[in-house]
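Catalogue entry: protein
Contents: sequence, C-alpha cells
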Amino acid sequence: MAITKQQFIHKLEHCLCPPGDGVFTVNTAKERKDALRTKLYGQTEGVDALWKTSLTDIEQSEHKAVILGISSDCGGGILRGANWGPLFLRSTLIEQHPQVNAFDLGDVRVIPHLLHDKYLNDATISNCQKALYQNSNSDYYVSPLSITEDVCDGFYQQHPNKGIFGIGGDHSISYPLTKSYLKAKRDEGKRTAIIHFDAHTDLLVERLGIDLCFGSWCTHILEFLPAPHHLIQFGIRSSGKDKAHWESTFGVKQHWAHEIREQGADAIVKQVIAQLKTDNVDELYVSFDIDALDEEFASATGTPEGNGMTPDEALTILRALREEFPITGADMMEIAPFTDSSLVGQTSSETTLREGAKISAFLIDAMNNA
C-alpha cells in the first residue's frame, strides 16, 4: 500500500534509530558509539534530534546510496556477534575510506530475541509494540526482518532512484533487503540479478524448522527473481552436497571457490557477464557474506572457512560486473568484530573490518555512480 512522504518519515522515526545505536545496550561499546556520533554529527549529545531532522533530507541528498544498519544476529546460530557489524563497519569506512559518502538512514530498532513477526503470537507482538513504540496496538512491526522489509518497501516507493546499502548482522537480513529490492525493480519493469558472495549456498528450505534464517534466505527470494539462475553465487566451498545438486534442484548458477582459483577470476566473470547479457539483465544487487573470503582475510565472522576467495579475486569480479551493469543495491553481512582470534601483527577483527570496508566502499561508490 502506497504511503505519503510524511507517513514514511514518521515510520522511520519510530522503527529506526540513529546510526550505530541498533544494538540495545546501556554501557557496552559506549565509547565506540560516541566516537561514531562525533564523526557523523560533531557531538555525542542530542544526536536523536539531529538524526530525525536529517530524515527529511533524503531526497535532497546527492548520493544514490543510502546506508541502513540491521544489528540482528538472531537468524544466525553458529557463532553470534554479527549484530555489532553496523557500528564497527561504519567507523572503519569513515576512518579508512573518507572519500566514500552515502546518506545514512540509521539502524533498525532491534529486539534481539526476535526474527520475523510471523513467528510471534498476538500477545507477544502487542507486548513488543508497547516496548518499542509505547503503544500495544501500533501499526508497526516489531521483528528485525519484518521492520526491514516494511521500511525498504516504503523507501523504494518514495525514492525509486536511490538504493539501500544494508549492513548486517547475520545473512537472514538479506531476505527482506533483496525481497524489497526485487519487488520494486519488478514493478519498474527492470530485469535484475542477485550476485551472492558466500562460502555457503544458503539454499536450505528451512533450518531446524525455521524457514527464514542465514542458511535459507536465498531459497525464499528465488520466486521474486525473473528466473532462478539470476541468483549467481561466488565462493561456495562449505556444503554437504555438490554443485550439481544445488544447480539442478534450485536452478541457480554457482562458481565455487576452487573454480575461481583454478580458472582465474577474470575467466569466471567473463562467463557471468555473458550469461547476464543473454538474460537481458538491467541491474544488479550484490549480497556479500564476508566468509566468502578465505579465513586468512575474514576470520571475525560466525563461520570462517578456509580455501576461500581473496579480496583481490572478489574485487576483480565486482569491477568487471560494474563496467557492464549498474549495481543499484548491495549489502555486507556477517562481520562479527568481537569474535576475535590473534593474527600476526594485528587482530582478526581489524583484518576482517579492513577487507569488509574495502569491498563496502567499492559497492557504495558503484551505487552512487550507477
In short: The domain at 5-368 is CATH 3.40.800.10 (Arginase; Chain A). The first helix runs from residue 5 to 15. The beta strands are 16-17, 65-70, 103-108, 163-168, 192-197, 231-234, 253-255, 283-289, 327-333. The chain has one domain: 5-368.
